[in-house]
Design a protein that fits this description.
Number of helices: 2
Number of strands: 0
Distance between the termini: 50 Å
Order of helices and strands: HH
Helix content: 55-70%
């Protein structure tokens, strides 16, 4: 007889483990985005424009955080980086 509960499924436990790891990484990512924000604000204040390479990386990092959040709230089953490619900025 097949169980309708996911309690015994390995895939469910793996997802929960990954969710815990991504959740632990989030404070570091928030800090990093905060540092980028301050640097870009200062660069724009001093030079009149943001740093293009940091602008690109900040966008990629923001997309990565969005992917993590979608995975954490079960909006997406796609595992974020490093299980997929790093988000690209077009």
């Amino acid at each position: 007889m097949e169980s309708k509960y996911r309690f015994f499924e390995d895939a469910h436990w793996l997802r929960l483990l990954l969710m815990a790891l991504y959740w632990l990484v989030m404070p570091f990512l928030q800090f990093l985005l905060g540092v980028i924000t301050v640097i870009q604000g200062l660069a724009a204040l001093i030079t009149g424009e943001p740093i293009p390479s940091l602008q690109r990386f900040g966008g990629q990092l923001a997309d990565f955080v969005a992917q993590i959040l979608q995975f954490l709230v079960y909006k997406s089953d796609q595992r974020p980086f490093p299980f997929t490619d790093w988000p690209s900025q077009d």
